[in-house]
Amino acid sequence: MIRCGLVQVETPTEPARLASALVRFTPGARTNWHSHANGQTLYITDGTGLVGTRDGDVVRVRAGQTVKCPAGEEHWHGATDTTLMAHIAMVVGDGSGDGTTWLEPVTDEQYANALSSKN
């Protein structure tokens, strides 16, 4: 189950292309797998969370850190199972929207493996 509250979304109009959102995740909440045409930058504002990629890499993130997800990389992000996490998500759109491709949910098994990662 995804339990996150989207606090603010700003979808730009031409000629601007930067979209940003402040997203808060309750413990255990995470996004679906997704990718961004032009990449994504996450600035962690509160708590502790995880960012995972298809190859199994997982980064544990904390308030004050910045994570850059390359263009086209399938990834997910969310809170740990015991802490909340909030981030400002920034993407540069592709001219027809924010360039995000949403995919399937992160399974409970994938999430549990990410939690047990040593990163």
Overview of the molecule:
With about 120 residues, the protein is mainly beta. It is about 5% helix and about 50% strand. It has 1 helix and 9 strands, in the order βββββββββα. It has one helix at about 110-115, and strands spanning about 5-10, 20-25, 35, 40-55, 60, 65-70, 75-80, 85-90, 100. The strands form 2 sheets. Strands 1, 2, 4, 5, 6, 7 and 8 form a 7-stranded antiparallel sheet that branches. Strands 3-9 form a two-stranded antiparallel ribbon. The longest helix has 8 residues, at about 110-115. The radius of gyration is 14 Å and the shape is globular.
Short description:
This protein has one helix at residues 108-115, and strands at 4-10, 18-25, 34-36, 40-53, 58-62, 66-69, 75-79, 85-92, 100-102. With 119 residues, it is mostly beta strands. Strands 1, 2, 4, 5, 6, 7 and 8 form a 7-stranded antiparallel beta sheet that branches. Strands 3-9 form a two-stranded antiparallel sheet.
- How does the helix and strand content classify structurally? mainly beta
Quaternary state of this entry equals single chain
Strand runs, count: 9
Our count of helices gives 1
Instruction: Tell me about the largest β-sheet.
Output: 7 strands, antiparallel
Radius of gyration based on Cα positions: 14 Å
Inertia-based shape: globular
Question: How far is it from the N-terminal to the C-terminal residue, by CA?
Answer: 24 Å
Measured by DSSP, the beta-strand proportion falls in: over 45%
> Uncertain regions: pLDDT < 50 for 5+ in a row?
1-8
Series of secondary-structure elements, N-terminal to C-terminal: EEEEEEEEEH
* Mean model confidence by pLDDT: 88
Classify the helix fraction into a percent range.
under 10%
